[in-house]
Amino acid sequence: MNYHKMDQEDILALKQIVEEKNLLTREQIGEDYCHDELGGISSYPDVLIRAGSTGEISAIMKYSYDKNIPVVVRGSGTGLVGAAVALYGGIMLETTQMNHILELDEENLTVTVEPGVLLMELAQFAQDHDFLYPPDPGEKSATIGGNISTNAGGMRAVKYGVTRDYVRALTVVLPTGEIVELGGKIVKNSSGYSLKDLMIGSEGTLGIITKAVLKLVPLPQKSISLLIPYPSMESAIEAVPEIIRSKSAPTAVEFMERETILFAEEYLGKKFPDTQSDAYLLLTFDGSSLEQVEAEYDKTAKLCLSQGALDVLLVDTDERKDSVWSARSAFLEAIKASTTEMDECDVVVPRNHVAEFIKYTHQLAREIDIRIPSFGHAGDGNLHVYICRDELNEEEWKKKLALAFDKMYERANELGGAVSGEHGIGYAKQAFLEQQVGKTQIRLMQGIKQVFDPKGLLNPGKVVCGASK
To answer: Which CATH number goes with the domain that contains 118?
Structure first.
């Protein structure tokens, strides 16, 4: 990469754009900024800038474009594929200070936010005003900008859809520093190519999101969850297509194994309502009235019991809700705490193949003698599968990890699946993306990158390579 190596002249020029306190040089940058949540790749930026406005970001990009300096955007750093790591140094733009909720438009059912607003802050704001922002990824401390950049999904996707379905408009700074407004508060739009939708899921490689107009829905008045134990993971997963086929409309359909629940209990220091069974489904139903919700979950409960469920536990008290959902939210951290190192397969398959894929991961774990716990969104086919190093030496770990990934992504492809359901491609999954979609689609993606970012300055080395200078 023929990038400019930053020097003192660049530091002084950038200090003319942002306040000195918001610019940190290499020796001032903390270790957290050299990696993301999983830490599979590590590299420091030369400069960290805590951006405060669209205007500041525009001026920074104009300077970096003129000087050929790479720029990586970072929110909370909760990603799992190395997308927010500055592989080539340069400037890291942190957007967490751009954390204002700018407008609630109750007539158009939209909320306008800056990219640094946390998901949990937006969710609470919407609820306080009797609305729901449906996307519900497990990491509630992630920023909205990061959610949009990866098209995050979460637990409510089975009923409500993913982040893309709730983005009405974006303000974006291009690599040249130009500011563009994409989309609007309008519900329909057939006016040319949807540049807004290209930005969603592009992982900061095409432009920098500085404002978003998001769709809200009325807040459901009632919500109840069911915790359903099964004698085996196979019987639990095999029940999911039957639930979907029954035309009930659960908000979430999560699956979890006993081993993962026990990790979460130990990690959180609190008890789960039941840990006697090998596997569980966690279903949530919401609606406008208790009668509607009860009718939905009663039909599903009877179906599950007829299909081999051992029991149906109603999660209707605050204590039970806290124990169940806090455990579900902690699964990633709990598995991480149970091993010396791990990596994730964020695979997605058609819903009717979820059971087949999970069975395959169990078979694979036995074949190559490595631990592969999992959990995920059974209702939409997005599975979070973790390969754990435990006591393996470095050589064994790398060999078995590579083999596990190759086998799992190959199987997912055979089942009509995709490399990532919601965590993105970043640095870590590029080779698997090319294997899945082929050279023609990669060439098209590289062409899109080239049009938006001809110098290859934005988040270089991520998603698709070959479009950089």
So the answer is: 3.30.465.10
Which range of residues forms the domain containing residue 183? 101-218
Number of structural domains the chain divides into: 4
Answer yes or no: are the C-beta atoms of 173 and 457 closer than 8 Å: no
Task: From 332, 358, 380, give the residue that closes a domain.
Answer: 332
Residues 258-305 pLDDT 10s: 999 999 999 999 999 999 999 999 999 999 999 999 999 999 999 999
The first and second tokens of residue 82, run together, are 């190395």
Start-to-end Cα distance in the chain: 6
Residue 457 structure tokens: 């300055």
Same domain, 173 and 246: no
Stretch 137-158: mean pLDDT, rounded?
A: 95
What DSSP string describes 378-404? TTTTEEEEEEE-TT--HHHHHHHHHHH
Pairing of strands 71-74, 91-94: parallel
Shared domain check, 326 and 284: yes
User: Counting Cβ atoms within 10 Å, is residue 49 exposed (0-12), middle (13-18) or buried (19+)?
Assistant: buried
**What pTM was computed for the model?**
0.94
Question: Which domain-ending residue is among 391, 414, 437?
Answer: 414
Whether 294 contacts 221, CB under 8 Å: no
Q: Cα–Cα distance between 328 and 338 in angstroms, integer?
A: 16
Q: What is the CATH number of the domain that holds 77?
A: 3.30.43.10
Burial degree of 27 (CB within 10 A; 0-12, 13-18, 19+) = exposed
- CB-based burial label for 448 (10 Å; 0-12, 13-18, 19+): middle
CA-to-CA distance for 182 and 22, rounded, in angstroms?
Answer: 28
User: How far, in Å, CA of 401 to CA of 403, rounded?
Assistant: 5
